[in-house]
Structure formats: C-alpha cells, structure tokens
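Notes from the 1:1 (GR / supervisor)

We went over the backlog. Supervisor wanted to see one worked example end to end before approving the batch request, so GR pasted a single chain during the call. The sequence is below; no edits were made to it. Supervisor asked that the structure be written out right there so they could see what the output format looks like.
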Amino acid sequence: MVLERLSKNEAKKRAEERLAQLLDLPLFSDLEYTRDALEFEVRLSYEPALILDGMPQRPSYIRFESCEPGQVLVNQGDLTTHLFVVLEGLVNVFYAEPGQGTELFNTYERGGWFGEVSSLSNQPSLTTARTQTTSELAVIDARLFKKLYAEEEDGPFQEQINARYRQESLLLHLKVSELFAGVPREKLLKIRDGAQFISFKKGKTIAAQGDEAKDFFLVRSGAIQCYKQDGVKGKQRVFAYHKANSSFGEHSITTDDPRWPGTYETMAPTDVVRIPREIFERVRHEHPEAFHVLKDRAARLSAEEIEILVHKQSVKGGEPLVIDRAMCIRCNVCVESCAAVHGDHVPRLSKVGNRASEKDVLITACYNCEIPECMAECDYGAIRRDAQGMVRFVYDNCVGCTLCTKGCPYGVIRMTEPRAHEPASERPTLLQGLLTGVPFLRHLVGRKPTEPSTDMKVMSLGGEGAQVDGKAIKCDSCAGLPFEACVYNCPTSAIHRRSPEDLFKI
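Structure output shown during the call:
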C-alpha cells in the first residue's frame, strides 16, 4: 500500500475525489439512499464530529486505498468482512484447489468488485486477490454493505450484486461447500446452471414439516430456524438453526421418499440457492461416479441421533464430552480437577448427562450454540463469542441478573453465591496433587491453588482475576489451558471427547 502524509484539507479533497469516482460507477449510480450513506461515511473519515455527543464513536465504514502492483488484498481462506470496489487499475483473483494448483478466476478493472459473498455470509474468502497494476480501491465494511444491500431490496444495487453471484461466485460457493468438495468443475457447472437463487423475507416458510423434500438448499445469507410441532404439548420445538454458509435438505439426495423433518422458517431476510432433486438425478444418470461422492457427503445423523446430540449433550468443536460408564471408577477426579483449575474452586463439570448407548453418557456442559439464547437475553454485554467460536462471559459486565440462566434452554448456566469471604483452602496432599494434576497446572493457571478464594479468580474472556462471586458460571472448556482438566486427569481415560461419526458409527 502506498502511504502518504496528507493534511486535513488534502485528505478531504482526496476522499471527495474518490467518492465522486465511486458514485460514478454503475453499481452505485442513481441510488438515493446509497449515495447519501456513502457520502456520510466518507465525510466521517475526516469529520469525526459527525457522530453526535453521547452516541458511540466509531470509524468510517469506508476507506480508500492506493495499492502497488503485486499487493495481496486478501488471501483465500482469510476471514474478510469487506467489499472491494476497483476505482482504477487491475486486480487479479485466483482460486487454489488442493492437488490441482491455482487458476486465474477473473480480472477486475474499473467498476469491478469482489468480497460480497464473504461479507454477506461471514465465511472465509473464496479466493486470493492481488493487484496487477497500481490500483485505487474503495473498501466498504460489511456493516455498511449489508445495509445498502437490504435497503435497496429488489433494486438495482441488490440486483447487480445477485447477478454477479449467480454468474460467477455461485460456482465457487458450491466448490467450497462440504457437499460438493471434490466434485469436478464440469459437473458443478451442470448443477449451477440448474440452481435457482431465491430471496425470502423474514417469517417466510421455505419448507413445511411432512412435505416431500424435493430440494437441497445452500444458505448464502440470513438465518433459518427448523422447528417441529410437538404433538403431545402442541408447541413448536426448535431443533436446528441454519445461518449463512450452511445447508439443509441433503437427505433429499439419498432417500427415495424423503419428508421434511420439520418446518424451515426464515428468522431474517434470507438468500438461498435452491437445487432441485432432479438436478442431482441428472448428474447421477450422466456421471454416476460424481453422484456417489455427493451421496457419501450427504450422509447425516438420524433424527434420533440429532435429538441426542443437539438437545441432550454438550459439544465442543462438534465433539461431545462422553463418560464411558464401563471404565469409570467413580473416583470423582474429573470434578476435583475442574475445581482445581478455577480460582473460585467451584467445578463447572457435572457428571449428570444423557445416555447415548449402553455404556456412554453424554455430559451436560455448554453447547456453544450457533445462536446463543443466553447472549440474546443478556442486556449488559456480558456474554460474547470468542475467536474460536466459544461462548464466554465478560465478568466485568455481569451484574448477576440471572437472565442468561433463564434464557439457556439446556440449564448449563448457574449462579455463584454472592459471598464476601471464604476461608483459604488447604494445600493438597501429594496423592491429591497427583490425582488432580494441580502441581502440573500451577504454572499454567498463574496462581497457587492454596491462595484464598476470596479473589474468586477464573480463566475467562473477562481476564484472570475477574470477580465472579454472585455471577453466572458455566463450563468454559478450561479456557487458557492447552487441555481440558477433566479429560487430562482421568486415571482410566473414561472421560473423553468423541466425534459424532465415531459415537454413532456413521
């Protein structure tokens, strides 16, 4: 990137010139709301006072960059949240496929754009973008881009974005999805050509429980809930969420007489790609080897197994925490180890769980839900999702209101006692130390287990030393440690993580 020192007036003049270039492009011309929003953001870049007193201060959602030849703008696989628009110059976009090398996917000149799929679906970049010549680009933050996209519903801006997606990006979206990984390009082209791009408003039903499932859906943006009608209680029970970059309907490919297991309803404006079953049938007839790949990848858990995995157990990275009852000797070291690595000495682990088989029990702990209801209930910003996708507490913000405990559908959050003082714990014996692993964990936790627990320290997103007395706690998967204490210290290896495939032999 070319860096220059500009005075305030020079920066203002440069920004206004770039804005004029941007608004002159077909993507942005003749759109009143779009122009007003872009003008405000550009002014904000050199007039921070536009944000009124008392309102949250933020940087501008648009910036202009001058780039040298050969500069990498984004790498394939990076999580990017920007729409890139070329104002001047040429930008090459490459797609790399494991074992097949790298191919030039496209070259964008003035007026071209890329990054819209990642911005809308929050998925990693599908390609690598590198400047071919000295270039000027407008970089629009996803928060602004999504507003522009939603505001101009069925308008020229949205239609141009969607047309580019259908023509170019859909093929890449198919290639990187789990179901189509490894399917040759020529077969994907046939599937792409038969696909239908559909936009739904909030509250619309895409598929109804019990109807014949004739389609496979790839979600580009938005959110969908799948719920069942409880015949006994007459209530709706949500058992799945499908957000951007997910899919559903895979069973329609592999089952002769499929039925939708639930009703799929949009929770927000949602864009999906619909691929009719007959397209897959055509691929099976013309290219049976490709269909077998699709069929193998479309294998999913049964409804009963989903019931166990989603409603009755805890998952970390897709792997449930399991106790093998045949190997467990009831020594309680797992619980004691959990207490030892937390400064308040309150164990997060509960051996209460649900039977998954004759000998396996799935332990109740945090599900790290895709759409955490505890987070939605919290009015104080005390629950966040970290970079690894784990749901964490920010204890400095927690006020002990208990809303999260009421919002959690699985009962894995509980409140600590609001006590002011607790006597110091005794130093563990050598045998206790060997069983619980405390001597080996001491340098990792950053405190001695014999320190008074009035500090109530805990490894958390809120930071070591956060006060948790009278606040909410749950399994934090031993945040800050390279292992989970319960698993690491079990003398018989009775407690462990197991993949769904291994657990149910699929």
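Supervisor's comment: The first helix runs from residue 8 to 23.
Batch request approved.
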